[in-house]
Amino acid sequence: MENSKKVWYGKGFKLGVLGGGQLGRMLIQEAIDWNVHIYCLDPDPNAPCSQIANNFTIGSITDYQTVLDFAKDKDVVTVEIENVNIEALEEVEKMGVKVFPQPNVLRIIRDKGIQKEFYKKHGLPTSDFSLINSKAELSSFDNFFPKVQKLRTGGYDGRGVKVLKSQKDIKDAFDAPCILEDYIPFEKELAIIVARNESGDVNTFPVVECEFSPEANLVEFLFSPAEISKMIESKAKEIAINIIESLQMVGILAVEFFLTKDGDLLINEIAPRPHNSGHHTIECNVTSQFQQHLRSVLNLPLGDSSLINCGAMLNILGEKGSNGPALYDGMEFLLNHPGVFVHVYGKEMVKPFRKMGHVTLTAPTILELKQKVKFIKGKLKAHSA
């Protein structure tokens, strides 16, 4: 296969990645098997990708000129985080560089307000919402509690989200452009990953069930497959495919859902990149989400996404009170058990609730898997001296 008259394997082809965190690192680990040369841009000289990328550039992914200079000589450019300079990507796209996901898609997804309006326009199920520009506007909403307030831009890993349970919570609300949406008393939180290549081929991974940490406000662990009916699984796939095709997006898309107590699926958020809810696919699926992302942005045939084993993924989060060089306790304990796979992200500094790695567990059944999770949970700790 050729792209811009260059084959995608070897030194002549340059795949640029904006962002150098753990998602980029795991993408590179897959790319190495195919000799795909990956060039990364990140402001942190010690970012996880700096250790293994074919080429690593230190610089801001939000600065127009820096992104333009980095991307203009690449064959394909992709992202591992949404907060990038879209104007620069639009310019390099005009130069003939392929940018996936496309800049217009990033514009929609990066702003949660525009994202919500996209769902409404296309008849996609989501919770009711309002757009506000400041904290002062909250006083105009009478008897609206509980609500969820989300920053329109810049939020990630649980940051940028506040649950407003009563009037007294308004004092701690964000004073910035936000969406205000209904608090959904859900039965389960689900996620699905869907991929689409440039030829228009689409494939989904099995739905996963997420368990969130109320303290860290991010995914603590997940199970695959989700314990849901075939009808709910089919509906989730249908909605995910509808989203990626409505966007005409090339790449991989994670879709997070609330499953309501009435059995409805409501879209919570989407992410146009490999996602925390797909890390287990490295060991549990025929094709990992990272290889599927490579396949999609290089316009290769999409891989078989079916399960090999039931799986669970546990995030390794920085311990409370940690702030310094990273140390890990419990590695030997985990490695002494079959079906346990440890991924450490290479972050030199640990902070409270920072994602430092993850552990994947495999088992023949969900029941055995849940028993294994209870046994393993909390045994590997990331902390500072």
CATH architecture of the largest domain: 2-Layer Sandwich
The CATH superfamily of the largest domain turns out to be ATP-grasp fold, B domain
Q: Overall mean pLDDT score? A: 92
Number of domains: 3
Main CATH class of the largest domain: Alpha Beta
Strand count, sense and closure of the main sheet?
9 strands, antiparallel
- What would you report as the Rg, rounded to the nearest angstrom? 21 Å
Shape: globular
Kindly report how far apart the N and C termini lie.
50 Å
CATH-assigned fold name of the largest domain: D-amino Acid Aminotransferase, Chain A, domain 1
Instruction: Tell me the β content.
Output: 25-35%
Structural features, described:
Helix 4 crosses helix 5. The strands form 5 sheets. Strands 12, 13, 14, 15, 16, 17, 18, 20 and 22 form a 9-stranded antiparallel beta sheet that branches. The protein is built from 10 helices and 23 strands. The mean pLDDT is 92. It has 385 residues and is an alpha+beta fold. The chain is globular. It folds into 3 domains: 98 residues, 3-Layer(aba) Sandwich (Rossmann fold), CATH 3.40.50; 55 residues, ATP-grasp fold, A domain (Dna Ligase, domain 1), CATH 3.30.1490; 199 residues, D-amino Acid Aminotransferase, Chain A, domain 1 (2-Layer Sandwich), CATH 3.30.470.
